[in-house]
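tool=predict chain=A
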Amino acid sequence: MNTDVLIVGAGPAGLTAAIVLAQRGRQVVIVDAQAEGANTSRAAVVHSRTLEVLEPYGVADRMVARGIHTPVFTIRDRDKVLLPVPFDGLPTAYPYTLMISQADTEAYLLARLEELGGKVIRPARVSGIDQDADGVTATLEDGKQIRASYVIGADGMHSTVRESAGIGFEGGTYAESFVLADVRLSGGVPQNEVILYFSPAGLVVVAPLPGGLHRIVATVDEAPAEPGIPFVQQLLDTRGPEAEPARVEELIWGSRFRVHHRIADTYRSGRILLAGDAAHVHSPAGGQGMNLGIDDAVHLGEALSRVLEGEPESLLDSYAAARRPLAEQVVGLAGRLTKLATAASGRRVLRNLLLGLAGRIPAVRNRLAWQLSGLNRRQAS
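tool=predict ok
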């Protein structure tokens, strides 16, 4: 099988890159090791800049119609607002955080790719990648081979493509584990904002999702393999709103995971390129991971399309050189938010005091809104 570009990994980054290339008339093959429906729905936040870069590719409007528009992001100490981050004043057609499950995001991306004549080959696991001066040969576990001019590794943190290229992936792992759950709630949880509750017991994030659901994310010393209603309820009781407590009426699904902070040494090795979690992973604080991956994919797809049309390969070097510093910024921001959220009990009073003071300064609120929304990445486009 021969193609212009082979994309390994059909998550949000891989699907986005495939859409960009297909819409620009390039031949694309996209493979994924997982069967249909095997992906968990971790990401739930789509920021303004992500919708802007998706707009030319026929996906943004569908996502906007499906998701919940939340114009403010707040950090609270139980019922007390410490730091509000308003998005409704941002100079964009999307002045809000869009809450939508990753499963929905991937469904809209896949539907658009299929409209363009593409499809995902599943399950198809790549076992090895070999490149030469003229192209790249990917070998699948079943022995089949795919020959491509270029390969995009969008196959996640444990990327086979990255490892085959010998690209380092330096960083570490946070000590805490994270709990993730989608639930139906009753009680005192606002419906139009994403809330980070800071408390002496630790962090819990509560955010609305379509269908009357809420996404819960929390840091704990050691999470159970399958957090149930009593565990999630305890998190809300000890960390969430007090005046009108939130009650878990139904648990749709729950999971636990460890959070890493790592960045690939380079995003390009000859004809092999990286995007998304294969290139960078970090804390979910601020909801940046999937957004940066989609942003990577749009820029890489556009650069590759131009190279395949005859423009110089230096465009790929420019992609690699521009995207890695952006990942460093995002990893740094997510790390700072995580450290704030997981501060030792003796430092939490001071932390809350400083956040409360910062929340009174418009410039601080606006700067954080620009960073979280991704609009600060416009200048790098």
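The first strand starts at residue 2 and ends at 8. The two ends are 33 Å apart (CA to CA).
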